[in-house]
Amino acid sequence: MDFIKCNVAIVGGGASGLMAAVELARSGKGLKVAVLEHHAKVGRKLMATGNGRCNLTNKSLTANSYRGGAEYLESVLQRYNSSCITNYFSEIGLVTYADEQGRVYPLSNNVSSVYDCITDYAFSKGVDCYCNVTVKKIIPEKKGYTLLSDDYRVFAENVILACGGKASAKLSTDGLGYSLLKGLGISVTNIMPSLVQVPCSNKCLANLKGLRTKGEISLVIGDKIIGKEAGEIQFAKGALSGICVFQLSWYVSKYFSNRKNKDNIAFYLDLMPNFTIQECFALLKSRANSLHWYKLSNFFDGFLHKRVASALYSECGIKDTQRTASTLTKNEITKLAHCIKGWRFNPVAAGEFENAQVTSGGASCKEIDFNSCQSKKYPHLYIVGELVDVDGICGGYNLHWAWSSGIMAARNILKGYGKTND
């Protein structure tokens, strides 16, 4: 078994771990820093973010953008706002821009630019990287910590746990960090998938797979509207997907994690959000009159995708689509209008971790000092990124937390060596 001795061991080479490494390297203090990565290469999950574009942060940054840990983040987001992060990236060579919705991307629109800037800076400044290393145990010592893997024994004065969550396990660690936390007696909250497609029981999804549509989708639990999102909805195999659904998926996961919950849960999809139900009915009635010779199979041409139209007919119990539009009854038009304005989809489970963009839950925020991300129980042990019970909605908020927490932990460590990059 090989032995490594270092000032700082970073367990996990994802976004937060790599940013901590950059911050430690920037100090010029000459600290020995070792990144211990579970996979054969660092940054695998980072490389898959934002459909390969990498949404770094968001100019519309508030604690309300977070579902988990929101009450702990006010002071963090004041110190590390979006300008702070974009300026930070600028200092290590990355050029960025913000789109009309405030989402910040690399100018190249390619995540490889982000990856290259971070890794080039950290590793050129002397940060050591050890890949295919799975830390299985952490032992607190008098002046630091011993970390054990199959091939290495590492002694570090400071440890940053940045090993990610359970989402996208092929790119992350399948929850390795939670075992390390529990081994140290650090509380872990309920783990759920978030920003994920939602399985639904509707049979029509088999024929709709692969289609996308604009609209507005609402999540209703019991008799309460929990949330509403407008934009693009995607139909997947046995599931609803797309950013609108992702934004609501946290509530679905929470619903199904509570086995005592007996309230009904449903999505309602509005394909014509700019029309009232009366206006939708009037449009369909007018269309049936003006295009009276059209077969129903062609009635929605130029209006809706044929497969969507076919699914609506099935939903409304209209079987014969070879009839002409003139044969549509008032009752059938009413059913179609109501379906277009409130097409019900029935969630049957939370999404799967392997499809999730982020994990909800993690190290309890109560056990972390949010001025430093240091464990309240263990001095010189830091918990950052997705491993913490902090998760946000789509839009760059989760990466913002990763960058901020990594920098914060590194800066606190540097104070112990008489150096800070603040």
Structure description:
With 422 residues, the chain is α+β, with helices and mostly antiparallel strands. The chain is built from twelve helices and 22 strands. Strands 1, 2, 7, 8, 9, 10 and 21 form a seven-stranded mixed beta sheet that branches. It has a six-stranded antiparallel beta sheet with strand order 12-15-14-13-16-17. Strands 3-6-5 form a three-stranded antiparallel beta sheet. A hairpin with a 4-residue loop joins strand 5 and strand 6 (103-106). The relative contact order is 0.19.
Throw out a few tags for this protein.
12 helices, 24% strand, six-stranded antiparallel sheet, single chain, 422 residues, seven-stranded mixed sheet, alpha+beta, 22 strands, elongated
Largest sheet: 7 strands, mixed
Radius of gyration: 25 Å
Q: Helical stretch count?
A: 12
Rounded mean pLDDT score: 95
Judged by helices, strands and strand pairing, the structural class is alpha+beta
Q: What is the global morphology?
A: elongated
In the predicted model, the low-confidence regions spanning at least 5 consecutive residues are none
The helix content is: 25-40%
Distance between the termini: 38 Å
Q: How many individual β-strands? A: 22
- The portion of residues forming beta strands comes to 15-25%
Explain briefly what this protein structure is.
The protein is built from twelve helices and 22 strands. The protein has about 425 residues and is α+β, with helices and mostly antiparallel strands.
